[in-house]
Write the structure tokens for this entry.
Amino acid sequence: MTADEEREFQDLLERLRQEHRDLDIAIHALQDMPGSDQLQLARLKKRKLQLRDRIGYIEDQICPDIIA
């Protein structure tokens, strides 16, 4: 992996982590609201899980676990 590719992955990783944090805040806010939209809440949680999986994948691309 070249330095430019790694920098791009790092930038993408930071954007995804920020989106994950933002979703966490939105989920907590929605859960605290009485009569909150359960379908919207489920969608946000699903998106958050997708982001977590993508973050893990990118972290593995940057620093793979090499079995020696």
